[in-house]
Design brief:
The chain is α/β, with parallel strands linked by helices. It has 2 domains: 2-88, 2-Layer Sandwich (Nucleotidyltransferase, domain 5), CATH 3.30.420.40; 105-256, ATPase, nucleotide binding domain (Nucleotidyltransferase, domain 5, 2-Layer Sandwich). Helix content is 40%, strand content 22%. It has a 5-stranded mixed β-sheet with strand order 3-2-1-4-5, with helices on both faces. Strand 2 and strand 3 form a beta hairpin. The longest helix is centred in the C-terminal third of the chain and has 30 residues, at 186-215. It is globular.
Length: 277
């Protein structure tokens, strides 16, 4: 089976082509909330074609989206090209697959739930996923495999945009590690505050969240920490202590796991209905 997994975020869209369980290609594009269904179809076809794939080779598609206008646009585009509706991954479709132990499960972002499902499947619990994107999401999986919440902080790029946009004399800078924490010019001072400050934010939150997760875990438990998202290629990420693995495609794999579980439940329900009939 060829499955196209699509993670629709506020800044970027990630696509992953799976042949059964193998990820055979992945691509990233910029999100445009006002894109038409035809533009979305052309974008998907163009990205697939970069590596010799075609949209008409797909058997199905599954979406995890935090941008409602684009969810319906992608649905229309894929329905027209595939002749069937794509699977939508959200808290409702994951019922029976992932226990979501937060106050209002429907509010949990689909990408966060897919990250939790992938981490639980591949690493077990307890675990923490750090998703470094437009926002910085920390998602926690308990020892028994339930999604129990986490934390949301501004992303690195968003923090810089807020700083530059609010201080007219500050320039736009490259988000790279400065030569030292003490900046001797404006650029290095800004890099120190943004990049090293961000490392401190991630490290501090990770320490606090790991401590609380261990308090509710069996004795001698070890928390697995996985990083994913758009900033996983940055060298400064290695300065954050306690990260066990960097998995840029974790969300896409989570979408595949969700689709697999949804299909299995549908097949079971159909078998039961046939037996009852």
């Amino acid at each position: 089976m060829k499955l196209l997994a699509i993670d629709i975020g506020n800044t970027n869209i990630s696509l992953g082509l799976f042949a059964d369980a193998s990820l055979v290609g992945s691509w990233r594009a910029t999100s445009r909330a006002d894109a038409t269904a035809d533009e979305v179809a052309a974008q998907i076809a163009g990205l697939l074609a970069l590596d010799g794939h075609r949209i008409d080779e797909l058997d199905t598609a599954a979406l995890a989206s935090v941008v409602p206008p684009l969810t319906s646009t992608f649905e229309r585009a894929l329905r027209r090209r595939l002749g069937r509706d794509p699977f939508i991954v959200d808290a409702g479709s994951l019922a029976g697959t992932l226990a979501i132990e937060i106050d209002r499960p429907a509010e949990a972002g689909a990408d966060r739930l897919c990250n939790a499902l992938a981490a639980r499947t591949e690493y077990g619990g307890p675990a923490i996923v750090i998703d470094l994107g437009t926002s910085t999401n920390f998602d926690l999986i308990s020892a028994d495999g339930a999604y129990v919440g986490g934390a949301i902080a501004p992303g690195l790029g968003l923090s810089l945009e807020a700083l530059v946009g609010s201080a007219s004399k500050l320039p736009r800078i490259d988000l790279r590690r400065p030569p030292s924490a003490i900046g001797t010019n404006t650029v290095h001072a800004m890099q120190s505050g943004t990049v090293l400050g961000y490392v401190g934010l991630v490290s501090g939150l990770l320490t606090a969240l790991r401590s609380e997760l261990l308090e509710r875990s069996p004795e001698a438990s070890r928390v697995s920490v996985v990083a994913t998202g758009g900033y996983t290629h940055e060298e400064w990420l290695h300065e954050v202590p306690g990260i066990d693995a960097i998995e840029p495609d974790l969300t896409l794999r989570g979408i595949r796991y969700a689709h697999e579980a949804i299909m299995a439940r549908s097949a079971l329900a159909a078998a039961r209905a046939e037996t009852d009939g």
